[in-house]
Design goal:
The chain is mostly helical. The protein has 10 helices and no strands. The protein has 2 domains: about 50 residues, Homeodomain-like (Arc Repressor Mutant, subunit A); about 140 residues, Tetracycline Repressor, domain 2.
Length: about 220
């Protein structure tokens, strides 16, 4: 009787392992985003993050190399999510006033809808930006926003609606500053001013004021 060959053991598909690895990495990033936003960089320990991710500390070092590497990945993640949300918006460059208003509303509403984004940026600024400076992707995520504004300003200038000497970076910083400052300081300002700035009504009022303000800055003439 011919000798039968032993049955080969079923091999686990590489795709399954890769999916499991990605799921672990994503879980760690989600947990780290919450932990760093709550405890800051110094207080956001690897132990806290691994517990929140229901993972192991060694997996953090395996995927990210260090706590700092993980924090850089978190910063890249929050920038990428804003970049992706912005990329999903359609801008009609033939109507530059409306397009710029849409950019302003998007940025201000994104800050309000994503408080962890503002908190993490505040934490990174306390560390003088030393972590984001090590990112190889953060700048590419910001470049799209500036490029969109540049195209809108060029379209508006060509139609005689906007000033021709505007710099897109300046307009971007103006919008970002008004949205970021309002969100990052809303609690202290509420106490200082004696009125709640964190209500939907107050936020909507601020949005309308900033839209009008930025449009007045960029217009070729100021309406009386």
């Amino acid at each position: 009787m011919p000798r039968q060959k032993p049955l080969a053991k079923p091999q686990r598909k590489t795709g399954v392992r890769e999916a499991a690895a990605q799921a672990t990495r994503d879980a760690i990033l989600r947990a780290a985003t919450k932990v760093f936003a709550r405890y800051g960089y110094d207080g956001g320990s690897v132990e806290k993050i691994s517990q929140a991710a229901k993972s192991y500390e060694r997996m953090i070092y395996y995927y990210f190399g260090s706590k700092e590497g993980l924090f850089v990945a978190v910063l890249e993640g929050i920038y990428k999510r804003m970049h992706d949300a912005e990329a999903a918006i359609a801008f009609d460059m033939s109507h530059p006033v409306d397009a710029l208003a849409k950019v302003i509303r998007f940025m201000l509403r994104y800050y309000r809808a994503n408080p962890d984004f503002v908190t993490l940026l505040s934490i990174e600024n306390l560390h003088k930006g030393r972590h984001v400076a090590k990112s190889v992707h953060a700048r590419e995520y910001s470049s799209r926003a500036v490029a969109i504004i540049d195209d809108i300003l060029a379209s508006g200038a060509a139609r005689g609606l906007f000033r021709s000497n505007l710099i897109a970076r300046d307009v971007y910083l103006l919008i970002a500053a008004t949205g970021y400052f309002y969100m990052s300081n809303r609690y202290s300002l509420s106490g200082f001013l004696g009125e709640q700035l964190d209500t939907p009504e107050a936020a909507a009022h601020w949005e309308e004021f900033i839209v009008e303000t930025v449009l007045r800055v960029v217009r070729s003439h100021i309406d009386s």
